[in-house]
Amino acid sequence: GAMVTGYSGQVRLKEITSYGEGRISPETVTLTNGMWSGQLTMYRADESSINRGNVNIYAWLESAPSRNGTSDPFIVHPGPFARLQIVLPGQAPLPGSLTGLTGSPASQAAGTGFQVDVFATDQYWNPVFSADVAMISSSDPAASTPVSGAMSAGHAQFSVSLGTVGSQTLNVTDQSNGSISGMTSAPIMVI
Question: Cβ distance 58 to 13 under 8 Å?
């Protein structure tokens, strides 16, 4: 569409990817005479269409949502490997979000094994490739940890069990590269 040079005011922004909405900063910009100049940061990577791109910036007026526009598609690449992510039953990865996860850990029966996923991610929880060795430990002295193994294409799955009733956590660390940040899980209720 054509630039509306007579408009000055706030415009809301959001990142749209082939996976759904992402996070963008800033979320609001102020146009002057139909223009704004500055830097935007998109946090959710999407390389699903390398030739064309599958990320768009969607802009709209909060006071009149039908007045909106969408950018041409582009690609957002993940950053370098920066941290490990632990995902428990009841949770799912949410790349580009503040916490990297959606959902809450499901309660677990004492002494019963359950699957835990570990992912290599950039600083914004976007998945990246790695073959580093990940190790899981626990706050529970009766857990079946530590367990470790090499990731394949940035992912590893472990079976663990917790043995002490109450609130427990799991921790993941990178055994191959000390500069990679680990992660402590949200509390898991052991029953």
Answer: yes
Residue 1 has pLDDT above 70, yes or no: no
Which of 129, 178, 181, 125 minimizes the C-alpha distance to 155?
Answer: 129
Q: Is 112 helix (H, G, I), strand (E, B) or coil?
A: coil
- Which region holds residue 33: left if phi is over 0, alpha if psi is between -120 and 50, else beta? left
- Kindly report each contact of residues 174-181 with a partner whose C-beta sits within 8 Å and lies 24 or more positions away, as own/partner: 174/84, 174/132, 174/133, 174/134, 174/135, 175/132, 175/133, 175/134, 175/135, 175/148, 176/132, 176/133, 177/81, 177/132, 180/81, 180/82, 180/83, 180/84, 180/120, 180/132, 181/82, 181/83, 181/84
Distance CA 30, CA 169 (A): 44
The whole-model pTM stands at 0.89
Bridge-partner residues for 137, per DSSP?
171
Region of 53 (left: φ > 0; alpha: ψ -120 to 50; beta: rest) is left
